[in-house]
Design brief:
This protein is α+β, with helices and mostly antiparallel strands. It has one domain: Peptide deformylase (Peptide Deformylase, Alpha-Beta Complex), CATH 3.90.45. 31% of the residues lie in helices and 29% in strands. It is built from 6 helices and 8 strands; from the N terminus they run H-H-E-E-H-E-E-E-E-E-H-E-H-H. A hairpin with a 2-residue loop joins strand 4 and strand 5. Helix 1 packs across helix 2. The protein is globular and about 55 Å long.
Length: 216
């Protein structure tokens, strides 16, 4: 194990000790860890430590609440992420956004590539950039590769909102925030007006009112 690996393991142990059965603090934009490329996970933790870290990330994501959380968001420079989406109660939003529920899963050293040139533009936010949302044109379908927490290889096509979550969280592991890909004229505070824009099935009224072009 390298000195860097030992340092990361020490960071994980410290975080687990501080959090206990609670949640971890989520770092915000401006923290250098969010702009660094995460280290590939290569067994730096023993099985119990990895399980405890993933459980902590899961609790933290749910409490926030969010639909994904990458290790850099809890100040750990490791290529690990957790995702889970209960979906939305609106049938219209579910259909237009292709937002079927996504069961909890772990992504280890994930990567993605576009399956086609088709994109979908919707508002999204980030736990590390609280109180704002913006429209991001994402690949509608991506090929997800990597591993799960057991070491099983992942190689599958993910579509719709699940593909958006995968892209968002994997970007975190590359030092990229969603704002780097966003249509900045769409940026909206999460207040009454912003919620109205973000609540559209597709942000067409927001595009007309705020003066940006939807990419699809």
């Amino acid at each position: 194990m390298t000195a860097r690996d030992t340092q990361v393991r020490d960071l994980v142990r410290e975080l687990l000790d501080l959090a206990g059965e609670g949640t971890a603090p989520i770092v915000r934009a401006g923290h250098p860890v969010l702009r660094a490329v995460a280290l590939p996970y290569d067994g730096q933790l023993d099985d119990d430590e990895l399980a405890a870290l993933l459980a902590l990330m899961h609790r933290t994501m749910r409490a926030a609440p969010g639909v994904g959380l990458a290790a850099p968001q809890v100040a750990l420079p490791l290529a690990l992420a957790v995702v889970e989406d209960p979906g939305v109660p609106s049938e219209t939003l579910t259909e237009v956004r292709e937002r079927a529920p996504l069961a909890f899963r772990v992504l280890v050293n994930p990567g993605y590539e576009a399956v086609s040139g088709e994109r979908a533009s919707f508002y999204e936010g980030c736990l590390s950039v609280p109180a704002y949302q913006a429209v991001v044109a994402r690949h509608r379908a991506v090929r997800l590769t990597g591993f799960d927490e057991t070491g099983r290889a992942l190689d599958e096509v993910v579509t719709g909102w699940a593909a958006r979550i995968v892209q968002h969280e994997t970007d975190h592991l590359r030092g990229t925030l969603y704002l780097d890909r966003a249509e900045l004229r769409s940026l909206a505070a999460a207040d009454e007006i912003g919620v109205r824009w973000a609540g559209e099935p597709r942000p067409e009224a927001a595009a007309a009112a705020l003066g940006f072009t939807l990419t699809s």
